[in-house]
Amino acid sequence: MTTLLALWQLSLFLCSVALLALAAILLARVISEGRGSRRENERRRVSGLLLASELDSPRAPRGRIERDAAAKVALEMAELVRGPDREALLANAEALRVPHILLQKSVSRVPQERLLAAEALALFPSGRKRVGEMLRDRNPDVRLGAALALAQNQAAPPAAEIVRRLGLGTRERSLLVASLMRDLVDADPASVEELIFAPGLPDAARLAAADALAASGRIEHAPLVARMAEEAGQDEELLPRIYHALGRIGHPSGHSAILRGLSHPAWTVRAAAAQAAGTNGLVEAAAGLGLLLDDPQWWVRFRAGEALWRLGAAGRAVLTDLARDGSPSAREAAARTIEERATS
């Protein structure tokens, strides 16, 4: 009887616990739905105010939910509009004290909140000083995000200063570094040009700058990248990327550097130079590319054959001659190139 009583009491206890758990779940759901409803209502309210032509003493967001919604809506909408509409939207956001909300978030203990605050604050001239201070944030992602935000809003400090503050090329190896350099080229190309030859900076940062200058498609950067090839000496890691950049730019000022690269001791450099010669349509390189069809490295022979085919009649004449009268490896490489390209 005692055992049965104990089991009965245990069953009642477990049922009570289950009922309490169910009640807690229902209460949490009600609270969550209430917060979601408040958040959605605030988003609609703020969206209307941000798009208004005139604001007459609008009520500033109160409470965490309203402040979070206002900050996120302002950032989302600012990314969608440009020109006078964006200026009007940001002015309305100022009237709603959105920058003040973001300033409070910029000192949060949560790195993600600081990062979002930096991205939004950089939209406001009044907030960019604080974003500049965030370049010294203890979190590397926040530092990089602050630099990106300033660059996208044409308010970044010189490129060399950003590299030193963020440790680009040493501590910081984020994939966003390339995006940062491209934004800096758009905002302040002169500071990125200076970065290539600034003393004491790591090669990785110089390479990122060279890649960004090349990707910009501005031919005025070609002499700088060509000079970088000259000063790189025998650096087997640096030179291939420089030649890829010269290939993308396609300016005659880089041709002499490409021609020198065809006879470089490192096969990776020879392959990159051969590819750049083909991309640039560098007919003067036909003879040098023909010699590379006898290179001991297959990849160099492949790139040289590709480049000769891209040079048109002059390159294809070299391929035809070598397919008939070249060394065994040159004959094979030339014949294979002709066969593959003729059927593609």
Would you kindly provide a written description of the structure presented here, covering whatever features stand out?
Helix 5 (111-121) packs parallel to helix 7 (140-152), helix 10 (189-197) packs antiparallel against helix 11 (203-215) and helix 12 packs antiparallel against helix 13 (238-249). The chain is elongated, with a radius of gyration of 31 Å. It has 19 helices and no strands. By secondary structure, it is mainly alpha-helical. It has helices spanning 2-51, 63-78, 83-95, 98-105, 111-121, 128-133, 140-152, 159-166, 176-187, 189-197, 203-215, 222-231, 238-249, 255-261, 267-280, 286-292, 298-310, 313-325, 328-343.
Briefly characterize the structure.
The chain has 344 residues and is mostly helical. The chain is 73% helix and 0% strand. The protein is elongated and about 100 Å long.
Order of helices and strands: HHHHHHHHHHHHHHHHHHH
What is the CA-atom radius of gyration, in angstroms? Answer: 31 Å
Ends distance: 90 Å
Give the strand content.
under 5%
Average residue-wise pLDDT? 78
Largest sheet: none
Percent helix among the residues? over 70%
Low-confidence segments, ≥5 residues, pLDDT <50?
none
Number of E strands: 0
Structural class, from helix and strand content? mainly alpha
Q: What characteristic shape results from the CA principal axes?
A: elongated
